[in-house]
Amino acid sequence: MATTADIKIGMCIELDGKTFQIVDFQHVKPGKGPAFVRTKLKNLENGRVLDNTFSAGVKIEPVRVERRPYQFTYEDDLGMHFMHTETFEEINIDKNLINNYDLMADGQIVEVMFHTEKETVLSAELPPIVDMEVTYTEPGVKGDTASTNSLKPATVNTGATIRVPLFINTGDKIRVDTRTREYYERIK
Questions:
Q1: N or C: fewer beta carbons within 10 Å in the chain?
Q2: Which domains, ranges and CATH numbers included, belong to the chain?
Q3: What are the Translation elongation factor P/YeiP central domain coordinates in residue numbering (predicted)?
Q4: Is residue 148 predicted with pLDDT exceeding 60?
């Protein structure tokens, strides 16, 4: 058992029979009344984020999780299929458990989070930055600057649409932040 003093961002806890990951927390000590901890919890079964408040010193149930590298192989009506990079064990994961799954290319290495006691998949995370190729975007016009204030839609090689600066053209290779779905930089 742990207490609210042990809370860290990224920690997984069990609450009401469900597994949650702590996205954000803040320890609050008001001038009047007892201290408490305000948290944002992500439900690892459906991806919803909810706010929860714990009284200071309350016991919480931490969950042991293990992260393992898996390579994306293909997608069908059963879900997304992955292969462990060392044991070659294959698993399939529902695409709702993967954040921004449409940014995942064939052969992409992802980190799959497992509940160690139940041996169930909790979520899969793409690397923070991925390299992609722009397959279609409106052509740039002479005079477009390097300003990132003006953005236009672009389709990348996985079929996802992201917003890119005006100077990006079809065929350019770019880096994309998978957490925010934002353009990061152009690759030469």
A1: C
A2: 11-62 (2.30.30.30), 65-125 (2.40.50.140), 130-186 (2.40.50.140)
A3: 67-122
A4: no
